[in-house]
Backbone:
């Protein structure tokens, strides 16, 4: 009996963390606090910048809290600067681009990884070529195509290119998750009478939830912050997005920087909020994609 206990103890794999020096813990905590402050300070500065007058911004109170909290800078940015319309345009363009790229990537990945046909590897390689093409190199041919199709100054002018350029990375992310789904599930679904589409929607789609957050964040950042296509393809103010609107605002209000700071806050904080709410999903997706079997 004692021998069995000794052998069981010999093979005990329980990890016990080592006790570290309290001084080392304090030093690490101080360094982490300093690092957190360095990362938070730009957000703090941008927010306080948006509530100051030019006198405070340029000398009297650069980094401190505003002496007079000028909330009217936001109303001026939303009204006179037309940021409300640009914000809505960015939401429409970004939301539609994410939805299209996600649906197209899921279907393309399903066809490439779960269906056996002769050209699946060649098709996958063709899609992956999209990762090697810089967006700057395609601006002229894309503009020519959109111009000849009379497709400028519309929401779809940006939605289609954004979806196309996000598709390659979305397929790459989906492939990493979909290849880990056992093929036995497909066979069991076919035995139960599910066809190709029912297997895709009933079996594959629910199991791919961890990949949605990763694709959504990647596509959101790419579309929300994109400036070059939006500046070249859209010339009327009706369909401008936030980056172009801020650039136009800085050109019109070069002597009043408060509304410009307010516009920057309006454009930046949605990204931070979305990442805060989806950060756990992103971490889970990375873990799920890394674990085999």
Residues:
């Amino acid at each position: 009996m004692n021998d069995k206990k000794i052998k069981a103890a010999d093979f005990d794999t329980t990890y016990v963390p080592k006790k570290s020096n309290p001084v080392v813990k304090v030093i690490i905590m101080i360094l982490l606090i300093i690092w957190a402050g360095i990362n938070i300070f730009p957000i703090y500065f941008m927010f306080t910048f948006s509530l100051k007058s030019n006198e405070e911004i340029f000398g009297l109170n650069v980094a401190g809290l505003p002496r007079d909290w000028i909330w009217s800078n936001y109303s001026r940015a939303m009204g006179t600067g037309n940021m409300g319309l640009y914000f809505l345009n960015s939401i429409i363009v970004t939301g539609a681009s994410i939805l299209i790229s996600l649906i197209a990537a899921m279907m393309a990945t399903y066809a490439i990884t779960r269906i056996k046909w002769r050209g699946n590897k060649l098709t996958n390689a063709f899609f992956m070529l999209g990762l090697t093409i810089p967006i700057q190199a395609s601006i002229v041919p894309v503009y020519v195509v959109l111009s000849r199709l009379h497709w400028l100054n519309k929401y779809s002018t940006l939605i289609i290119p954004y979806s196309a350029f996000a598709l390659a990375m979305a397929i790459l992310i989906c492939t990493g998750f979909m290849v880990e789904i056992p093929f036995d599930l497909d066979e069991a679904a076919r035995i139960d009478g599910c066809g190709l589409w029912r297997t895709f929607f009933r079996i594959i789609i629910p199991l791919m939830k961890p990949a949605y957050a990763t694709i959504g964040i990647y596509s959101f950042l790419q579309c929300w912050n994109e400036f070059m296509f939006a500046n070249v393809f859209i010339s009327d103010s009706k369909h401008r997005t936030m980056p172009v609107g801020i650039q136009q605002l800085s050109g019109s209000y070069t002597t009043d920087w408060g509304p410009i700071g307010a516009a920057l806050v309006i454009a930046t904080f949605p990204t931070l909020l979305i990442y805060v709410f989806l950060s756990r999903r992103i971490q889970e997706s990375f873990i799920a994609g890394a674990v085999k079997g």
